[in-house]
């Protein structure tokens, strides 16, 4: 029930974690001195009514994880500066279904941006310093309005799984300085139904490309990946209805290609996957059958007027 002014002296406060969490009626100005605050994790999480501008001195702030998670009414500007000590913005705006305002943060030392805008209404330019970020997994997952170009320094990046999963309007260039450290590309563009941009990624250390373009129904760009270490490509292009590009992959480490091109209804290009002695799973590799039906035999040696597949 609480929704009263808060006139605290906070000069020496170091921790504001969960301060207004689940205060579902609270919607008052917050004019705190925050220069010594180290943590603001979940500070306004599930504060469903809160919609006040935030201007905080973030000199000491190291973590803003879930700070506004599911603050459903929030659509006011957020300014946290200077924020050079900040290392994690994990789920910071997760589930903010009204939020579409500029975010002013200094992210020079942030290492975790996972789920930062997942399931939010956010659609603003992203001008973050990202050179130390290791995880961007789920960063824009189901951010249904997001459609801004991405140009990130990804020198430290290792995780991009599900980064644009379900981002239905996203169709902008994705420019990463390098992805040589990334091991997991799983579901990166799964369900990104508008996406059809070049994917110029360095994938020499990738292990997992499972469901990478699953149901990315508009995607039809060359995929010139280094795949010598990839173990899993199952469902990689399943349901990618527009996809029709030749595949030339090194399958030295590949174990699972289950349903790799299943329901890719427009696919009619050559598939050459070499060095596949480790391959054990190719069930429904090119199946056009509904998922509820299991074919009696699909061993990857498919050869017809439609498909030419070669596992060597």
Commentary on this structure:
With 312 residues, the chain is low in regular secondary structure. It has a domain at 130-312. It contains no helices and 8 strands. The protein has strands at residues 54-57, 78-81, 103-105, 150-152, 174-176, 247-250, 271-274, 309-311. It has a 3-stranded parallel sheet with strand order 1-2-3, with no helix packed on it. The protein has a 3-stranded parallel sheet with strand order 6-7-8, with no helix packed on it. The termini are far apart. 48% of the residues are buried. Residues 292-309 have low confidence and may be disordered.
Sheet with the most strands?
Answer: 3 strands, parallel
- Name the structural class: little secondary structure
The backbone outline, from C-alpha atoms, is elongated
Q: What is the alpha-carbon Rg in Å?
A: 23 Å
CA(first)-CA(last) distance: 67 Å
Please give the count of helices: 0
> What is the string of helix and strand elements?
EEEEEEEE
- Give the beta-strand count: 8
**What is the spatial order of strands in the main beta sheet?**
1-2-3
Q: Could you list the spans in which at least 5 consecutive residues all have pLDDT below 50?
A: 292-309
Give the fraction of residues assigned to helices: under 10%
Q: Assembly type of the shown chains?
A: single chain
Strand content: 5-15%
What is the averaged pLDDT score? 93
Short description:
This protein is mostly loops and 312 residues long.
List the helices and strands and how they pair.
Layout: E1 54-57, E2 78-81, E3 103-105, E4 150-152, E5 174-176, E6 247-250, E7 271-274, E8 309-311
Parallel strand pairs: 1-2, 2-3, 4-5, 6-7, 7-8
